[in-house]
Amino acid sequence: MQARLDLFGNALATKLMKHIASAGRAIGESTLPRTTQELVQLRVSQINGCAFCTDMHTKEAARAGETAVRLNLVAVWREATVFTEAERAALELAEQGTRIADAAGGVDDGAWEKAAEHYDEDQLVALVSLISFMNTVNRLNVMAQTPAGDYQPGQFG
């Protein structure tokens, strides 16, 4: 498969990607647990059908010590017993925040309250920003048809 656009070779795309990457670094440096970040990034990417990001975040999570069992169960986290209550709250918020068009009211109060039980305000800012960030990069990669499979952990720094 060949990408429709070279998001890393075009001058304008490179400029935009630097700004997007900067936002990603700020989120990554937050106090939101790294494990939670990787699980959320993977789940949002799965929902959006972003092969490139699913490849990247599966590999990055494994590099960070995430187990194959948990990675394989992210797509069915509701039925899996391997996630903490905090992770489950983050995954629920991620799903609702990604599927806004599927729910007339957007993110429901119950999902928000559950996340707020486990994460402080800075972590909630990071979590909401991460969900939004991943939806942005997923859409860029899906529209550009960025191919998956060749990502190397740590490739972007």
UniProtKB/TrEMBL annotation:
Domain Carboxymuconolactone decarboxylase-like per the UniProt entry, residue ranges: 23-95
Origin superkingdom: Bacteria
Entries under Pfam families matching the protein: CMD
Membrane-spanning parts: none
SUPFAM superfamilies xrefs: AhpD-like (SSF69118)
Record NCBIfam families: ahpD_dom
Name of the molecule in the record: Carboxymuconolactone decarboxylase family protein
Source species of the chain: Streptomonospora nanhaiensis
